[in-house]
Amino acid sequence: MSRVVVIDDYEPTLRMYAAAIEKMLGGEVVPFSDPREALHYLNGMEPTLCVVDYSMPDMDGVEFVLELRGVPGRERTPIIMLTGKDDKELKNRALGAGVNVFLNKPVTADEFASHVRRLATQQTVQNDREGELRELKDRAEGAGRRLHARDREAVDAIARAYAARDAEGAAKMKLAGEIAVMLAIEIRCSVADVQLLREAAHVYDVGKLCVAEKTLGTTALLSPASRAAIEKHAEAGAEILSIADSRLFNAAATMARSHHERWDGMGYPRKLKGDAIPLSGRIIAVADALVAMMNARPDRPAMTFGHALDQVKRESGTHFDPAIVEALDRIKDKIGQLRS
Q1: How far apart are CA 307 and CA 321, in angstroms?
Q2: Residue 88 backbone dihedrals phi, psi, to 5 degrees
Q3: Which of 112, 177, 183, 318 is the most exposed place for a label (fewest CB within 10 A)?
């Protein structure tokens, strides 16, 4: 249904135009003799068309149009301006302010009706098109949210499968993921990227599901063959997490593949160097190493948090991205609270 707002301080003219428009279009015609009252109404109601007189006390038609164009959502509202002044400069001002049709009185009924019908029809078509696009966008976003929720459920299922085999390793991975999120926030990653990291970081080491339990659980120093087998877990994890082509699974696969790359290019599996290593991989590498150092291994006892932090700092610029290490040092007290 159309809704046309008519503004004219002269009541007889206001009633005449309102009656004519109602007869032409049907729908609703809302008349105002005070342009400020009309602006207040239009601030909360989107019209099909506005018809405004130029000569009004307190606020002329051009001032009204400038005010209306400043209201969010009213930038493209069709406006017809009527005036008894045959003034080219005024016409240019009105058109420049955003008037669509500028008519000099007296105007014939046919000419007026032609402009009213044309602008009202165009606006109705435009509103219908925008409504359809909004509906399609809402549907797409709803479908996207449902797919993302399913992805989260699938990633969590992978995490549970890992925990069923190695509960201690899963706990370490969870702690490293929490530290990685804190680091991402500290280096001012976007909210969306932090959220993606939060949802994906607790599965970055799942490739170890492909490593024999006796190799992972050995209390002896690793043989070259066993070490080579373990080093395959980065690519194996990326393959596991490539079961779906989505932002979440792609982010998880990227972390799995790159969390053992080194800043100096001496890591694995692809020997990436510096900024060629994905940022998420550089972040999780620091968090993973810190947590690993605080847990005992066959070749060394567990380190204290302070000792592990010092070791990470010593390897800044060789093993780790210096910017990530600096961020780690800035939030060391928060990480200490996380572990307590």
Answers
A1: 19
A2: -65, -40
A3: 318
